[in-house]
Input
Amino acid sequence: MQNYNLKNKETPITEFQKIDNLIPESFINLLEIELMNMSSWLYVDSASGTSNSFNREDTNVVDSFQFSHIIYDFEHGVSSHLWDQIKPMLWFLEDKTGYKVHDIYRIKANLLLPCNTEKNNYNIPHTDHDLKDYTSMVYYVNHSDGDTRIFNEHLENGPYNLTVSESNSPQRGSAILFPSTQYHCSSNPIQSKTRFIINFVLKLSKN
Output
């Protein structure tokens, strides 16, 4: 695992990476207040967006509903009122990592609530894109529990017999990066009332 605090010009994202303090404190506060007070959330009955392709023998999987808000969607030509506020995050990402954002596939905000789960439970593992040159970024809007689990396996390995590579706890203002073909999943908060994140699917290249 790499932890970016300064500019770093490595090859395109091939493994889990964490960025501390992606954006300034004033920006962190702005986004947290905006999402906490936003009313335009869409109810989604599965936090992974799918309920079919996973190992149903994995007793740790407890699929949950969530609320989502599409900020930018290239395929459907959608951008929300948050787009202008979220866009500068991409510039901070470039500054922190030395990567250039070459393409945006999707950006969306997700809200999870407590759902009678236990610490070992997580939502259905899934991937964000089927092309290896895309990178997923999860930005944590607020302090909460409900780890993001990153598995060793990628799309070509299939969703069975997954093994956990990383389990990352939400830290307000931080972000994680990993290949979009890598299986991952969220988990519901237990102690916290809410878990807000922003999910980016991007194509990055060396600056």
About this structure: The chain has one domain: 2-49+61-206.
